[in-house]
Write a structure and sequence with these properties.
With 88 residues, the chain is an all-alpha fold. It has a single domain, classed as Non-ribosomal Peptide Synthetase Peptidyl Carrier Protein, Chain A. It has five helices and no strands. The chain is globular and about 35 Å long. The relative contact order is 0.19.
Amino acid sequence: MSLKNEIREIVIKTAKIDGKIAGEPDFLSKPLPIDSMLAIEIMATLEKKFNIEIPEEDLFKFDKLENIMEIVSNLVEANAPALAEDLI
């Protein structure tokens, strides 16, 4: 599974997003139906899964899946370039 697909699945599962919504073509760029507590839970799950530390200021960018994917992908790549290539 690619890194972006893993991130997508973690967000969908953690936020309990309906499969119909997650299957929409614009799901990546649509605002996510999450509050700040759920964003913190998603952040913690991603940090644990990928062994990264997401800066607190990036939490405010957790409004769209594409933003989360970019943040996490950049951190994974910066921390482990070889691992990131395998996952992407």
